[in-house]
């Protein structure tokens, strides 16, 4: 298999798991317009995940399909970072999770779009427009919640305290990622960092929220060491395929 | 027409426009009963879209393929969109979304009873699309020509998307029926549960539907409940046959004389029971909506507070 | 298969689903002693479920095992009444659900113990002692919550409003049950009713709670028409068996 | 001894009893430092039982057979029972369960760091029983002879059940290792995750464990951390070999001279990191406990209020 395979699979898992979490909001959003926005972001990420899975399946060359990869792998085989599998919590938790992801995702796609792998570049180019909208949306909500009411600020602070520790994994390369970075196939995360950091600083300032001290980063998801949340998510996601394997739906 | 109109009372002018199939627009004079009936009907329709997100939303996280997950999520999102158009249409009649939601949450306003039935298997996603959306379309297509302009225009958009959804639902059923035996059984089991409730979607029998005449006169209703129910059966029985499924009504039989299908009597006791709030999911559906609304209050307040702060700052800056 | 098969399976499903719900409390009870009590009741019901499944498997005579019956049937094949699949909610909801079940369960077991089927009678006899304890426990908690604080009374009232409508299904015979009642294999529920009713009246009086007006009974679970909660429960319960069918654990 | 005791200071009498392996009982005089150390140690142990319910509780609803579900639930229930004995033992030293729980919830009191690792597959139920309970037993068996009577007696009950749990854990591993290849892989993957964290359960190296000497003197600790860690490795490596599994430490090798296994260096950075609260599950475990406690407050209050009402009524009746 191509050396890109595990990385593309990691991208696919990441987008799928976050899309799944966001889809849990469907019908339960705080206001109809935001219900739509959450579904929209979920659909974008689901579409992106499918493109990656399809590409990963081709790279692997063993005849597996996008659905085989999504529905027939166990939690320890999943490669998404811990951040995206964290539960929705309240709207503030969903927003903080989304902001941390979007801020990284946008810069990553910018890098991938100009990368040497044509297929990845084309997926990234398509997704970049969507990711820009996602980042705008989650940034605006960070600002609204931070500079809104006392209640919203309290909830935002709590969400930051809970989720900030999962941001570090996004830009901490695994052995696989380091290798691909050396080959020039994956953007150097160190180079992405200033833009990510600058946007975070800007949004938090607008939100009147002091930058939280850098927590000890929680690592593990990208190497298959997940939190306990993923197993439940997959039990639900995969139930029908596990129950009736090999059928067409 | 225009010259004559000068001599007519407002009521007569209004009815004359309706009879001439000229749309009533928000700024036009209208009888209070027409306004109230429309508010009730449109908001009930909007609430149905909102509550209707729940039974299908129930399977988004368990859809059996990425493609199906994506289609289903997009479909439920469309329903949210329909809700938005319809609330806006109702607002042109002088009510507010907050008021309409308050009426939904208090139980004063109704929504379609069909959503008080649970979705228990993946085949239900097929049945909801095929049967429930199918019934909805029969109810709604005539409303694209309804007398109130904003409502009619909203319905044009809604119907276009609904017929797309209905095809998707049918396609889910078809895939199941052409699949493994266990999938076909799943499809039949779901049809058994959904058939009668969808027949109920057209409302009580004409003989027990006293408002029909007035609504038809105002052209906010264009066919009677029983007419639509018959249309539905005539449309669906052959489709079920095509799928190789059996409609759970032994009385269904082609009537050569009527050129229509005979069918059995709906269980009206069940119908009224669910309407009165005693369906299996009435409690849960309403709870889910109330909970989302209540848990979202702080978010809406934050957004308003922030907008006000920003406006105040901008005013100072200017 | 024996005419008793579907009934024994229904008993098995009922005890299993309620045991499963109670086991969700494990580690999250309101106080350590009640965490233990909830686990205890769950274990009793799980044991009872296993006895029924084993007997059902024999009655069916198709070589299925207790685990096949529990882990490889879909929601629409499950035959538990709606009551037991309802979510735990807060402690008051769990108590009301338990009380409604225990009150019926105890009387049912008393009937089955003296019934003509030796195997059912022996399972019932063993379970009856446990059920008596369960009923005592849930009755005492109804009284404590009803005659406790304003808060506990408010929560109890809400739980009664939510769950009372599921009680009727327990004593409403399905076609299968009616047939077995005519054969004298299953106790006549009408005959059980006075004792159930008397105990309810006694406990509610002690709890200073007025008897709620009889709601329209929610039926369906015993004929496979469940609420939406069961599917999620089974997705979790069955995940491993569905994922790796046919293995030994 | 008894005659001599008259001439000794309380401290000397106390130490003499300990040296003579006579149990200290709640009513006996004891040095304040001994009392405080014991409260800390016993409550930490009780908290570990309580928090330890969570990682295993995580698989009760997903256990792969009814038998396993039943065994696992019974096991976690036993842990709740151990928590009860141990809180009671600590209470004999003049603290209260409420105080101990408050210290747990505020983060002041610790619990075993091993429970800050997640349980990710069914094989983790094997590893927790086999390795984690195995390590716990090595730590705990000597405590059955510890100097403080109530603690020693609690530990006798705890150890009896723990060794039963450990056998069950080993049996889960054995079933997986004798099962399908996918099951054996599951077992190996779990061992890879749990091996090092269990070695950390014995605490820091002796050279970095300053309180060991005093605790051994008081006979509330009977072996050093490194001694127990070596014992554990010597016990587990052959068991892993028996199962056909590979311990994830290339340095593991039988040392003929020492008649013991050599093994690699524990990642002490990870150890201190988790102790300081930065393990993957520290936040969740504590949150789960705090939440259960807070959401249970109204239940505890209702029980107290009802008991008071009942007592008042009985007083009137008498």
Classify the beta-strand content of chain A into a percent band: under 5%
Question: How are helices and strands ordered from N to C of chain A?
Answer: HHHHHHHHHHHH
**How would you sum up the global shape of chain B?**
globular
Main beta-sheet strand count, sense and barrel state of chain B: 2 strands, antiparallel
- Helical residue percent band of chain B: 55-70%
Describe the oligomeric state of these chains in a short phrase.
heterotetramer
Widest β-sheet, arrangement of strands of chain B: 1-2
Global structural class of chain B: mainly alpha
Q: End-to-end distance of chain B, in Å?
A: 53 Å
Strand portion of chain B: under 5%
How many helices of chain A? The count is 12
The count of β-strands of chain A is 0
Report on this model:
The complex is a heterotetramer, with 2 copies of chain A (about 250 residues) and 2 copies of chain B (about 325 residues). Chain A has helices at about 5-25, 30-60, 65-70, 80-85, 90-115, 120-145, 150-165, 170, 175-180, 190-205, 230-235, 240-245. Chain A is an all-alpha fold and about 250 residues long. By secondary structure, chain B is mostly helical. Chains in contact: A-B, A-C, A-D, B-C, C-D. At the A-B interface, helix 1, helix 2, helix 3, helix 6 and helix 7 of A face helix 3, helix 4, helix 7, helix 12 and helix 13 of B. Chains B, D: This is 1,2-phenylacetyl-CoA epoxidase subunit A. Chains B, D: It comes from Hymenobacter ginsengisoli.
């Amino acid at each position: 298999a191509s050396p890109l395979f595990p990385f593309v699979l990691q991208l696919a898992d990441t987008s799928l798991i976050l899309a799944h979490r966001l889809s849990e909001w469907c019908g339960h959003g705080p206001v109809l317009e935001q219900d739509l926005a959450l579904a929209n972001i979920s659909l974008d990420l689901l579409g992106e995940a499918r493109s990656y899975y399809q590409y990963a399946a081709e790279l692997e060359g063993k005849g597996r399909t996008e659905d085989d990869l999504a529905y027939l792998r166990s939690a320890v085989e999943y490669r998404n970072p811990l951040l995206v599998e964290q539960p929705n919590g309240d709207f503030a938790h969903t927003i903080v999770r989304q902001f941390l992801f979007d801020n990284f995702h946008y810069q990553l796609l910018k890098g991938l779009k100009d990368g040497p792998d044509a297929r990845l570049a084309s997926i990234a180019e398509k997704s970049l427009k969507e990711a820009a909208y996602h980042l705008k949306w989650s940034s605006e909500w960070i600002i609204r919640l931070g500079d809104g009411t006392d209640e919203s600020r309290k909830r935002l602070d709590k969400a930051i305290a809970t989720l900030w520790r999962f941001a570090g994994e996004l830009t901490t390369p695994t052995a696989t990622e380091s290798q691909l970075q050396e080959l020039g196939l994956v953007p150097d995360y160190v180079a992405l960092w200033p833009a990510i950091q600058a946007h975070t600083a800007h949004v938090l300032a607008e939100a009147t929220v002091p930058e939280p001290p850098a927590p000890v980063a929680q690592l593990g998801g990208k190497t298959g060491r997940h939190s306990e949340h993923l197993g439940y998510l997959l039990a639900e996601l995969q139930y029908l395929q596990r129950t009736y394997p090999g059928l067409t739906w | 027409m225009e010259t004559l109109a000068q001599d007519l009372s407002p009521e007569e002018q209004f009815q004359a426009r309706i009879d001439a199939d000229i749309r009533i627009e928000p700024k036009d004079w209208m009888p209070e009963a027409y306004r109230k009936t429309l508010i009730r009907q449109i908001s009930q329709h909007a609430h149905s879209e909102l509550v209707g997100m729940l039974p299908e939303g129930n399977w988004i996280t368990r859809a059996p393929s990425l493609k199906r997950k994506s289609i289903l999520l997009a479909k439920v999102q469309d329903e949210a969109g329909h809700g938005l158009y319809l609330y806006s249409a109702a607002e042109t009649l002088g009510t507010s979304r907050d008021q309409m939601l308050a009426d939904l949450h208090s139980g004063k306003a109704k929504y379609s009873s069909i959503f008080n039935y649970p979705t228990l298997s993946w085949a239900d996603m097929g049945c909801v699309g095929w049967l429930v959306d199918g019934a909805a379309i029969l109810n709604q297509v005539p409303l694209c020509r309804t007398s109130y302009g904003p409502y009619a225009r909203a319905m044009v958009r809604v119907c276009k998307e609904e017929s797309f959804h209905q095809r998707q639902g049918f396609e889910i059923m078809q895939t199941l029926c052409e699949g493994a035996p266990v999938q076909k059984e799943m499809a039949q089991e779901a049809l058994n549960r959904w058939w009668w409730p969808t027949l109920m979607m057209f409302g009580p029998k004409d003989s027990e539907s006293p408002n029909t005449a007035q609504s038809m006169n105002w052209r906010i209703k264009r066919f009677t409940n029983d007419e639509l129910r018959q249309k539905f059966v005539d449309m669906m029985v052959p489709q079920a046959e095509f799928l190789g499924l059996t409609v759970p009504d032994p009385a269904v039989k082609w009537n050569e004389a009527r050129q229509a299908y005979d069918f059995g009597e709906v269980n009206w006791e069940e119908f009224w029971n669910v309407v009165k709030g005693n369906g299996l999911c009435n409690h849960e559906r309403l709870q889910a909506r109330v909970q989302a609304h209540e848990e979202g209050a702080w978010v809406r307040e934050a957004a308003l507070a922030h907008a006000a702060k920003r406006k105040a700052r901008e005013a100072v800056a200017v």
